[in-house]
Design brief:
Length: about 425
Amino acid sequence: MPGDKSISHRALIFSLLAKGRCSVSRLSPAADCQSTIACLRNLGVTILQPSATSFVIDSPGLTELKAPASVLDAGNSGTTIRLLSGVLAGQPFSSTLDGDESLRKRPMSRVLTHLAKMGAQISYSEKENYPPFRIFGTKLQGQRFDLNVASAQVQTALVLAGLQADGETIIALPAIVRDHTERMLKHAGIPFRQNGLVISVSRLETPAEPFAINVAGDISSAAFFMVAAACLPGSILELLDVGMNPGRTLVLEALQQMGADVQVCGERNEGGEPIGTITVRGAERLKGITISGERIAAGIDEIPILALAGALCQGTFSVRDAQELRVKESDRLAAIANNLRAAGATVNEQADGFEIVGTDALPGGSDWKTHGDHRLAMMGLVANLLFEKPVQIDDVNCVAVSYPHFAVDLAKLLA
Ligand code: S3P
């Protein structure tokens, strides 16, 4: 699997907490991570790429960043724009952040109102809550934040601001999310306190020592192959060194609960993250399940591909409490329902989820609208292995946002 996108963003951005040369191997090839690299370069950070997936970051440290010469373009990447907002709120200069058409539709106040409470000044250039916006950085004041959204991006942005703030910054999450941030802080030797879902940080008085990290394989990318193998009888698939962060493993649990033969072995630690080998054997038809409640956050990016397995299951496959999917790279609840319905499935879309009545075969042959959303494009490519007739995917190239060579890797597995 390619390196994990979430961990890669953090490896790049957390290098700023150190001073000197950090190195990252197996960095994700995602276009999103290239957006982070471009933004960091615009802030005066030198980043070199000695080989395809190895990067070195010559970090000047948080206190020596340069005011960007131009707009910081986060492209399609919510993680880039939100995490960098946390960094920029504490800087003695102002910056404008923007993104592509999809990012311009994604809510930013979930991070920016908190940063404003810490002292940063925010002005939206066009529409309140959405990019582009300008952050006037300042000397920040720590606060307590009880988040009402289970978002690792929001939590991490506030951690990055808190490491530059006076006093203590306390962030309480409403549910377990991916804890890459905590693990990377530990890996880099940066002090923080944690009590269950509450994390607190204080100003980082001296930069951390430069660190090196080897990024775990991306379980969100692996999920597409896992579902393909689980739904194709006779398949045997082994995925090596996949990240097993407990805030990301819903896809494993859901497939197992649906009756798929999914096993994990050889678990060990890599860069502070649990990794392991996942083996999937395609056998019988999967069973319908309901996914809801606090565990949704642990599979927030995998619901689209799980829905495809759900469309071909025995019984009913339901997702509830997943309203966050409406504000991802596209409105994923609507897109899942519309694409599957067009392909012949019976889907009932709800405000916070959907219910699919499973069937043993789907005709396909329909239009598949990605809305430029990489995960919907990859879902369509996997659907083409499972439907009677292929769907016409309107934009296959957007897979590059997380996994540029997805179609090539998928084709190799079919050989
Ligand atoms: C991410 C967190 C999730 C996820 C996104 C990456 C991260 O978003 O959907 O793809 O790297 O922290 P939220 O934390 O906003 O749910």
